[in-house]
């Protein structure tokens, strides 16, 4: 009998999460943390359209690449600002526009969606991710706040652990992602 998979994106998400688990530092703690938060990452990722997005990155001078963070100001209250990372549906979209300062070297690299969500929880300075879901349309994006990711992780851990009164989200080291 032929088996048909109607949820190919879920397979990709499971594969992505397995890579996160497999590549986690083998310190006796980190793989278990990744396993515990994987369902929450999958819930959020499944609400997005693509299994990977392109993130603009610039060199940091130490042969590493950093994600480009953009400061957005409120239209009527310029003092209200937030730090966002843009995630593009296509490489072409990432290279269109002025997302980085002129003259700055930047590359658009494909990153699995679950890895984007996972790494964002370790970047304290980022408030949100903005996913541009439709290739060629940069006028509308889906915002996923870092707070939403953290709340989803907390809710999933409370469900998994079963005792919310004794639950405390483990501190995730800054260099984990």
Characterize the structure shown:
There is one protein chain. The chain is of the alpha+beta class and 177 residues long. The chain has one domain (8-164). It contains five helices and seven strands. It has helices at residues 8-23, 30-46, 91-95, 113-120, 146-161; strands at 52-59, 65-67, 70-73, 81-88, 107-112, 128-132, 142-145. Strands 1, 2, 3, 4, 5, 6 and 7 form a seven-stranded mixed β-sheet that branches. The longest helix has 17 residues, at 30-46. It is globular, with a radius of gyration of 17 Å. The termini are far apart. The model is unreliable at 1-7 and 164-170 (pLDDT under 50).
Largest sheet: 7 strands, mixed
Structural class: alpha+beta
> Which radius of gyration do the C-alpha atoms yield?
17 Å
Helix content: 25-40%
Tally of separate helices: 5
Strand % is: 15-25%
Cα shape: globular
Order of helices and strands: HHEEEEHEHEEH
Number of strand segments: 7
Instruction: Give the averaged pLDDT, no decimals.
Output: 85
Distance linking N and C termini:
42 Å
- Total number of domains: 1
Poorly predicted segments: 1-7, 164-170
List its traits.
177 residues; 7 strands; 5 helices; alpha+beta; seven-stranded mixed beta sheet
């Amino acid at each position: 009998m032929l088996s048909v998979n109607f949820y190919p994106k879920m397979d990709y998400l499971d594969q992505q999460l397995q890579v996160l688990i497999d590549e986690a530092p083998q310190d006796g703690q980190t793989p278990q943390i990744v396993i515990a938060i994987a369902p929450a990452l999958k819930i959020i990722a499944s609400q997005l359209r693509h299994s990977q997005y392109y993130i603009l990155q610039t060199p940091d001078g130490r042969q590493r690449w950093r994600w480009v963070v953009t400061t957005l100001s409120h239209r009527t209250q310029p003092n209200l600002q937030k730090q966002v990372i843009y995630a593009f549906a296509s490489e072409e979209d990432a290279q269109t526009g002025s997302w980085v300062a002129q003259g700055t070297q930047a590359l658009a690299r494909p990153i699995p969606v679950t890895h984007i969500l996972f790494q964002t929880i370790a970047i304290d300075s980022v408030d949100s991710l903005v996913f541009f879901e439709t290739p060629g349309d940069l006028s509308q994006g889906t915002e996923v706040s870092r707070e939403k990711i953290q709340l989803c992780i907390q809710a999933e851990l409370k469900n998994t652990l079963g005792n919310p009164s004794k639950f405390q989200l483990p501190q995730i080291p800054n260099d984990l992602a």
